[in-house]
Structure formats: structure tokens, C-alpha cells
Specification:
Blueprint lengths: L8 E8 L18 E6 L9 E5 L2 E6 L8 H6 L18 E6 L2 E6 L2 E7 L6 E7 L25 H20 L1
Antiparallel strand pairs: 1-2, 1-8, 2-3, 3-4, 5-6, 6-7
Length: 176
């Protein structure tokens, strides 16, 4: 967190496994698995402050200082710490990672940052926190990230058989 820290980021992933390298900015290209990405807290990279990766390959990124890429940052966040655009630093950010039929949508505070196809979505979900520059503040008050209120919703196709079975059971009970 700002003011005493530096660029840290929240990591997210779907289709990851327990055997691969941990999915993070500093490990991309070394055997990462799944569909994963990040959101930097202060747009400190300038060129890839939000990223979308499939396995070891970057599919898309948005950079705070890149022409034509600032709208999602300004629409999703209200904090400005002196850079050209708004940032998520020191605020609650709702992250929605929506996987449907090989399509992955990533929204922060209801604003779509990515909408990409991926063949790497089967597996575990992942959340993480990374300081890619090893420069976390020396003050413990500025050495944290917080994740809260997780919801994993099964795909409709996995719910349908259970719902149909439940409806059939209700009909049988009413008939008796």
C-alpha cells in the first residue's frame, strides 16, 4: 500500500494446478499453467498494470501510460496518486473472473478489463499477492494485501442435473 510501499499486485487465476510454478509476473515464461493475471495497485509498471496470461504467454495487457488504454482505470477506480490515471491503491476492489465456454472475462469494480478466449481454464482457482520489485515497506503497517468475500458459482450445466433431480423428487412426493 501507498504511501510507504511500492508496486504490489493482486494475482488471480483459473485452471492452475499445484505442480506448476506459482503464477506471477516474475515467473511468467518459466512453466506457469492456466489462465491468470494481475492488477497492480499503483499502475507502477506503466505498460502492463493489468494483465491476462494463458500459461506462459501474455494474451493482453493494459498500461496506465499507454495511449488508448486508460479508460478502464479511470472508470473503475477513483484514487489518483499523482499519475496520469486513477489507480486501485488503498481501496476495496471487486474482482469478477467469469469463465464460460472457454471465454474469460475480467472485471474490476464492474468495469471490463479483459474479454478473452482461453483453452486453459480447467483446474483450481488461485488468488495471490506479489511484490515484483522486492521493495515492500519496512513499516509493517504498509506490508499487506487483503482478500475477502469469495464466491465460486458452479457453471449452469453442472447445476442443471441437480435442479432437475430436485424437481423430480418434489413431484414424486406431491404425488404420494
Amino acid at each position: 500500500p501507498i504511501p510507504a510501499g511500492s508496486t504490489e499486485q493482486a494475482l488471480w487465476g483459473v485452471g492452475v494446478n499445484a505442480d506448476a510454478i506459482v503464477e506471477a509476473r516474475n515467473t511468467r515464461g518459466t512453466g506457469t499453467v492456466g489462465t491468470w493475471g494481475w492488477l497492480a495497485n499503483d499502475n507502477g509498471y506503466g505498460t502492463e498494470d493489468a494483465a491476462f496470461n494463458e500459461n506462459d504467454i501474455e494474451v493482453a495487457d493494459l498500461g496506465d501510460t499507454q495511449i488508448g488504454e486508460s479508460d478502464p482505470f479511470n472508470d473503475a477506480f477513483t484514487n489518483n496518486i499523482g499519475g496520469p490515471n486513477n489507480v486501485p491503491v488503498n481501496s476495496w476492489v471487486r474482482a469478477d473472473i467469469i469463465v464460460s465456454g472457454g471465454n474469460v472475462r475480467v472485471l474490476y469494480n464492474g468495469v471490463e478489463f479483459f474479454n478473452e478466449m482461453s483453452a486453459s481454464t480447467d483446474g483450481f482457482a488461485m488468488l495471490g499477492y506479489e511484490d515484483p520489485f522486492s521493495s515492500i515497506s519496512s513499516s509493517p503497517d504498509f506490508q499487506w494485501g487483503l482478500f475477502d468475500n469469495f464466491v465460486v458459482t458452479p457453471a449452469p450445466s453442472t447445476l442443471a442435473p441437480a435442479l432437475l433431480a430436485g424437481i423430480g423428487l418434489l413431484r414424486r412426493r406431491r404425488a404420494q
